[in-house]
Automatic annotation (TrEMBL), chains A, B:
This is Endonuclease NucS. InterPro entries: Endonuclease_NucS (IPR002793), NucS_C (IPR048301), NucS_N (IPR048302), NucS_N_sf (IPR049173), tRNA_endonuc-like_dom_sf (IPR011856). One of its GO terms (molecular function) is endonuclease activity. It comes from the Bacteria. PANTHER family: ENDONUCLEASE NUCS (PTHR38814:SF1).
DNA sequence: TGGTCAATGTCGGGT
DNA sequence: ACCCGACGTTGACCA
């Protein structure tokens, strides 16, 4: 990893055109060849960047980065104030807990959370337009499609609606009802869902984890 | 801006929980108080970060970053290999060209691109569920809602469908037809749109710019 | 490779 | 502060 503080201007010509006027910035060159240009604010986002795979051609006062798609970053260097390189090695990577996949896992292990007598048919039930998070049967044996979100918003309701429309045409499954399950459901999403006859269920991650733990202690 | 290369492990407790095992990484501390932790790959995304506003408390071998929402980043420092600070000043900021706003601007100036006799009623026509990109009238005087995208995908069709449903209930506007206009329209989005009676129009950014330029030269 | 979806999405604008 | 939509979204996963 190479860290360069430089007075520079930048032009990007690719999916759009963008220009950065002359100023002092951080140029962050990584071992995979990627480069990002940071100002002294916004933790997350560089002002400009080029993702790998790409190639950096370093000329006098003019750096040029190009990728396969023909996108180009042109960095005009006025002055270099700092230039150091550091050996970092391969990172062991990030371990996450609490994302949607875990909610799905926990709910698949405890479908009765959604209603009495609920049983799981399949997780990630494939359809032509994408996978349904959970396919269940309710206490009466009717098919229920479940869309799981961390935060339930309108997009999620639309997604579930598309699945319901498709699944409802399958005579082996019809009639199919829907459940929109999330840790938090935005009011507008709830209105839209209920207007379409989709039941909303608010999930408690810790409680679900507790349920699973209790079940584990049975063995 | 402060650049630290350190052997560290990191824990994030917030919207989710995440852990980074011990390794050498870049800690990027910006003037606005934000911090991001980078490995030697992936141009764009840090492994971990905290967005401003947040506060960094620096103890012996243990950094702690917290924000208003109670999210926390705990950085355990094993060894510091590099530590420099640099004055960057305020960045003049990025100038973009070719984003959706420009497409909308150009199309608003040349509504006849969408069909003979088309006229503009309003850009960003407000509704209860959000702004319609363009509201037009066709050659026969009927209302047309136009959704503009750089890349037309299913989400955009859903969005336009919601607007059409709402606008169609307004007796002053009804009946309302829809146009899905984009520089590129994905096949699945086209199928969905046309299935719902929405016309698809592929836009040529350069041609549109040409039209506008021609009009400008008339004056 | 292309399609679909999640994300600690981030960011900006309007109400 | 909430809501909504764009983003060079990025990134992962699966057919």
């Amino acid at each position: 990893m190479r860290l360069v503080i430089a007075k520079c201007s930048v032009d990007y010509i690719g999916r759009l055109t963008a220009h950065l006027p002359l100023a002092t910035r951080l140029l962050l060159i990584k071992a995979d060849g990627s480069i990002s240009i940071h100002a002294d604010d916004r933790a997350y986002k560089p002002l400009n960047w080029m993702s790998p795979p790409c190639r950096l051609e370093e000329l006098e006062g003019q750096w040029r980065v190009v990728n396969k798609a023909g996108e180009e970053l042109r960095i005009t260097i006025e002055d270099i104030l700092h230039d150091t390189s550091h050996e970092l090695g391969i990172d062991p990577g990030l371990v996450k807990d609490g994302v949607e996949a875990h909610l799905q896992e926990l709910l698949a292990a405890a479908p009765e959370t959604l209603g009495p007598g609920f049983t799981l048919v399949r997780r990630e039930y494939m359809t032509a337009i994408g996978p349904v998070d959970l396919l269940c049967r309710d206490g009466a044996g009717a098919t229920v499609a479940v869309e799981i979100k961390r935060r339930g918003e309108i997009d999620g309701v639309e997604q579930l609606t598309r699945y319901l429309e498709l699944l409802g045409r399958d005579p082996l499954l019809a009639p199919v009802t829907g459940i929109f399950a999330a840790q938090e459901i935005k009011p507008q999403a709830r209105v839209l869902a209920e207007d379409r006859g989709i039941r909303c269920v608010v999930l408690d991650y810790n409680a679900l984890r507790g349920v699973q733990k209790d079940e584990l202690t049975l063995f």
